[in-house]
Amino acid sequence: MNNEDRQSLLRRRVLQGAGLMVFPLLLLVLRLWQVQVRQGPEHLRQTQRQCVRPIWDNPVRGRIFAADGKVLTDNTSHYDVVFHLAEMRQPGRSRRTKAHVLATAMRLAALMECENPLTADMLAQHVRMTPALPLRVFTDLNALERARLAELMPLISGVELVPRIERSYPFPAVASQILGVAVWEKPRTIDLNDMYSRSYAKDELRGLSGLEAAYDQALAGKPGMRLVRVDTMGYIHDDIGEAQPALNGHDLHLSIDSRAQRVADRALRGYSGALVVVDIHTGGVLAMASAPTYDLSVTDRNHYALLSVDEENLPLLNRAVNGLYTPGSIVKPLVALAALAKGAITPDEIYDCTGRYMVGDHPIRCARRYGHGPLDLLEAITVSCNPYFIHAGVETGIDVLNPMYAAAGVGEKSGFDLAERYAGIIPSRDMALRHWRRPWVVIDTAFVSIGQGGIEITPLQAAMFTAALANGGKLLRPYLVQNVVSADGKVVNNTPVVIRHRLPASPEHLRLVQQGMENAVAADYGSAKELRDAGIPLAGKTGTAEVGPKANRHHNTWIICYGPLPEPRYALACLIEKGDSGGRTAAPIAARFFREWLSAGEDLD
């Protein structure tokens, strides 16, 4: 091999060696480019997931006010002691820090002369799950305990006295089913697990029933958030950027009159039933009581669970909204309007009540055993004569009665603030086929003409059609929340007056029915004469519905009324389960309500 060949071979080997050296360097450069440039954002995100944590701060929940400005649901500060573990860390192994934390808890318990609630297991779980959050050790400190703590707290790093907001109720057994319960739950904040490996949030109040549930989003507000950098143990190292402050919840201002509500709740003590009072011109609910009820101030989740299984008293059931009842004679004014509209009866037509009405071979008896004798429409409303209204209803027919009941809101949810489970049952030919599996027959019309058989309503529905009878035929949408107000005092939402339907009746016919209801109170023989004790002039109609099987039959008793006459402002419906009669049971309760509500200056406590 000559020199040229050797040099050529050497050059090839040098080039090969250089190639072998350069190629890995090129691969390394390519990999570095891929990691640093192309995959840089992803690695940054992964790093952020590992060392950055969002910490959520709860807003203050909105309050609930009555129309007269009294607070019905408030927020009260309770004071707790928390440990900031990052500030209590000791040099060396983590067990030294844990021992220091446990010893500090023992020391504080001895100082405040109370039990030490902190255990090693509780501490270990907190360190494992939420080390960046304060560890809540002592709760609900009284004034003496806070004073004792103040002596020692400045000498111990990481110990802080912090307020905790809880719901409170100035009138704890008033409007319980309306206001409802808010309980502490695991947070339902925005899930940031795609951005961070873990986020820390405290338990938050969530509405479980009543307005607390229906307006939970408005009351709750929006949580604030701050980003913190944590070390390998999960303890906070420092804050990142500017914190987002929490937005406190909106306040609810109700149509409820606090005095009316307290009187209504008190009037139902010892009964099972409901009482609803509405403004006949707006549909705003002034009072809504349901009994039996419960005390909001002692209701936590466990106690609430016990109430929910009380099937005998059903204290959680808002009977005013979700109790379905056979109405009895309170629907007779609607039957009269339908019969007058069709021309099935005239105001002066005389009907001879003999004490019963025969439908084929089936007698339907009058409440007065031997009958009322000859009477016209006004007298029939005054004394609530069953045979008269059966005659009127049968002559009118279900195909005319049904639209009148529908216009009165029977069989239709009202659009109320609180959840309505049932629309009620409206009598119709279709209902008979669907529920009874048979055609509608005349005796069905006879029974629904006196509020029995295939018709069921809620006390709220009764109050609203009573308001329609009083205001000229306008069936309004009921509401509880007059307006929603933000934490800075701005009105976020205002509830308008909404006319849902109009009763298909002329002003002349409405005035006839109103006159009959006025006579039912004013006349000595009127079925609602007990309302004369109300202290204001009222028009009313009683109802007594037979319910249950023959062996266990009982009466659900009603009164509907409006006043004060001659320019009414309020309509009331009261239902008492297992009463005697509408006149003897429900009417005195309604009279007592108006008398006590409108007695200025009387102490209700």
TrEMBL record:
Residues 273-593 form the Penicillin-binding protein transpeptidase domain. It is found in: Cell membrane; Membrane. The chain crosses the membrane at residues 14-33. Residues 58-236 form the Penicillin-binding protein dimerisation domain. GO terms for cellular component: plasma membrane. It is a single-pass membrane protein. The keyword Protease applies. Keywords: Carboxypeptidase, Cell inner membrane, Cell membrane, Cell shape, Cell wall biogenesis/degradation, Hydrolase, Membrane, Peptidoglycan synthesis, Protease, Transmembrane, Transmembrane helix. One of its GO terms (biological process) is proteolysis. It comes from the Bacteria. This is Penicillin-binding protein 2.
